[in-house]
Amino acid sequence: MSNPVLVCALQRINAFRVLADALKRLTQRREKRSKTDSLLQTVMALTPKVTFRQATFFFTEVDFVTEMMAAFSNYCPSTCRLLKSTCFSSLAGERQRCPAESLFTYLQTGAQMLCTVLLIKPGVWSHSLARILQKLDLEKFIVVGMKHVNLEPDIALGLLSSEVKQDPAVLEAHCTYLTLGTALVLCLQRPNAVKKLIDLLGPEDTELAQALDPFFWRAQYDISTVQNGFYGSKSYQIAVQDMKLFFPEGLCCTECQTLEEEEV
């Protein structure tokens, strides 16, 4: 009889690349150990198509909808609510199971439309807004919210990284710049919006951005590391917080339900 294996269905952004890198590091560490130790044998799906085929082979809809619901509620609350809303119906005062929209169906729908926030800092949007909007359009972003804001010091502080906050002088320079004039805040929508925007902006260090790729937005529009032109939400969770902060009245796209789905 062969030894049992563990089969896992995993979810995250850039899942294939991240998992492959993690397994490679794990294998390298284990190979450095004694030759008497048994090596961990791993096999992973390499494409979405193979992933879907293998998931249907090893799992059923019940596995995902019931046993994995708790895990999904922690990682992807909007997906969990979608599943929960279709799993149960009330009949004569008694909750009974009904056909659910399975994770397999969810996987087949393709990339999910997400929102992120781009803040164009004072002095940049007034000179380059037309070019920036054109670039956003070329990258398939949809503008679902736009407003001018004069940042209060506490709001400006919340937009700065932990590295900036470590140096009082640098922190003061950043806060002074952010509160010096009017900024333009955009809420943008497209598949994988958060990561796509971060990839376009490039590193927050202007010199590093210019050295890595002159087409990074921070390489093109930044004046200095302090006057670095842009703020972009660094994760989906932060994007939701930014949308609630800058667009409490809601968004102009009726199809965008991000804020509604994330309300507790």
From TrEMBL:
Signal peptide extent: none
SMART domains, sorted: NDK
Ranges where the Nucleoside diphosphate kinase-like domain occurs: 113-253
InterPro entries: NDK-like_dom, NDK-like_dom_sf, TXND_domain-containing
Gene3D superfamilies, sorted: Nucleoside diphosphate kinase-like domain
Superkingdom, natural source: Eukaryota
UniProt similarity note: Belongs to the NDK family.
Protein name: Nucleoside diphosphate kinase-like domain-containing protein
